[in-house]
Amino acid sequence: MIVGGSVGAIGAVEAIREIDPLGTITVISAEPFPQYSRPMVASYVSGEATLEKMKYRDDQFWEKNKVQALVGRKAMTIDLAGRYVVLDRGDKISFGKLLIATGGKPLVPKTEGVGKDGVFTFTDLTNAENLRAKLKEGRTAVVIGGGLIGVSVAEALVKSGAKVTIVELRDRILDLILDEVASKIVEKVISESGVAVVTGQTVQRILGKSGDSRVVSGIVLANGEEMPCDLVVIAIGVVPRTELAVGTDLRVNNGVIVDRFMRTNIPDVYACGDVAEAYDFIFETNRLLPLWPVAHLGGRVAGLNMAGKKTEYPGGTLMSALKYFGLPVISVGMTVLEKSNGYEVLVDHRPAGNVYKKIVLKNDVMVGMTLVGNIERAGIIFHLMKNRVNVRQFKRELVSEDFGLINIPAPLRKKLFMMGD
Amino acid sequence: MKRIVVKEDVCIGCGLCEVYCIVEHSMSKDIIKAYRKEHPKPLSRVRVEEDRPFSFGVQCRHCEEPPCVIACLSGAMHVDEKTGLVMHDAEKCMGCWSCIMVCPYGAIRIDVSGKVVVKCDLCEGLDVPACVANCPNQALVYEEEIPKCQST
Q: What letter would DSSP give residue A211?
């Protein structure tokens, strides 16, 4: 049984079916839609992606994989001893093996006025539909939070013709994944495209209209400044949807803790995706990584293990590929350093062309990269990072403009990249 | 399953693989028309890397456990059920560059449109891919091979 119907579940179903064509699979998916790509919801708001284009797998995916899909149903509780899940209508479904892939939910601050009409969160299709409908009347928006989701939604709103301001608490946007230089390049590009950015500020209060106070009319910043707006989008982060696990014997920290085989502390119970705290190969510890590719890989590994093919999870890490108003950016691992001791940083920065390359190493092993502009060879660096390769011999080439496989010594290239004979 | 094998010891770095890849992925499939009339002309899916005296051509290896398929945000990158090849559906691609982030060969490129990626499709429909057919020194060979790159 799989609780959740997004990419973790899809990865698990595909993996299970590669090994076990006949075993019974039940998926409980709360969202009443076919499988769609959550990272594409911003493109849906801007009109760049249709619902058809957003489908991550075709409409017959569950049927084709012989999955009993309970779509639009919600799992309420898990009984680990009795080995069953209780659904929203009180029905019980028993399981032999269970994968918890319930994902995350948007974090909502306790700011005064967050309940008003015109305030949105932004992670799923329902939010996107509501926002799109509201855009027909509202034209001025404030986005709270300048992280991945906040900047994406700001771009989508601008492309829809809205006037947008991002309010970011920290001193720069995308501060968790980009250093100051890269963040400033992105900020310049999005500002030139019409997104206003206010940093080092929080929204203290959301104001209501004088005629109808339930409807948003603006916000007040911590410094007292008032900004009129019709829409407020809250994008300050996501938290794991751990309700099913909390209060049971499952080990839960911020997320459900899993080992290198995606197993929880309870036999035959697995977890993956935004709800799980799984291994990070750069930080070499378990942590939350609410990212689509990480959820897909975790789901796949969980599925393989559930079907009996013991497979070690190689680990995920913070990994982001971005394209804001056409500017390509890739950032992986540890790129924002709190302390520089012990780390070596290689940089190539050409401000005129918005080109920036930064590689962070520790003891000649790469632990982080940021590429802005020229990103096409990023995967080679990613592969070297993931395999913890000592790059001492060729590290100067890593930030060169035309870095490629050719810069890797032939024996290593043949061994690691299976090139040549 | 047949794949392209790179024999870097015999590559002469002539770049003909790139030229014929461009031609094969052009509208006209004619070398002169493709280079003179098609603007912009398509990108080569094979890339010749060179650091004299060494060189080799590299394109999508059609991995057994393709990291690009796992990383894809839209479902555009997929393994073809019949052929086992790693294929890319440009109609579904949202141009997020996640596949580029994880391709160990750096073999996925941003299309000239800037909106989607392009990669080697092994010249669907041809018996032998154009780069292999036009390699003058058998530095690209089309043969049965088991790829070893894995996402898991």
A: S
Min Cα distance A374 → chain B (Å) is: 10
Contact in structure between A180 and A221 (CB atoms under 8 Å): no
CATH, residue A88: 3.50.50.60
In this complex, the residue of A296, A304, A419 whose CB is nearest that of residue B70 is: A296
Token duo for residue A84: 């069953």
Q: In this predicted model, what pLDDT tens digit does every residue of B101-131 receive, in sequence order?
A: 999 999 999 999 999 999 999 999 999 999 9
Give CA–CA dist A166/A177, Å, rounded: 17
Q: Are A348 and A355 in contact (CB under 8 A)?
A: yes
Give the SS3 label for residue A115. coil
Number of structural domains chain A divides into: 3
Would you tell me how many other CB atoms lie within 10 Å of the CB of residue A259?
A: 14
Strands (E), A1-145: 2-3, 25-29, 67-71, 75-79, 84-87, 92-94, 98-100, 104-106, 119-121, 140-144
Closest alpha carbon to B60 in B39, B77, B35: B77
DSSP B72: -
**Domain B2-144 fold:** Alpha-Beta Plaits (3.30.70)
Torsion of CA B122, B128, B133, B137, to 10 degrees: 90
Q: Which residue is it, tokens 């280079």? A: B35
∠ CA(A22), CA(A24), CA(A26), 5° rounding?
A: 140
Length of chain B: 152
Say how far apart CA A224 and CA A265 lie, in whole Å. Answer: 49
Residues 77-96 of B with CB under 8 A from A: 91-92, 94-96
pLDDT class of A302 with cuts at 50, 70, 90: very high
Min Cα distance B104 → chain A (Å) is 5
The answer, yes or no, to whether ipTM is higher than 0.85 is yes
Return d(Cα A132, Cα A96) in angstroms, integer.
42
Q: What residues contact residue B138 under an 8 Å CB cut-off, 6+ apart?
A: B7, B10
Distance of CA A405 to the CA centre of its chain: 29
Cα-only R_g, chain B:
15
Distance, in Å, from the CA atom of A74 to the CA atom of B111, rounded to the nearest integer, reads: 42
Query: Are A167 and A125 contained in the same domain?
Result: yes
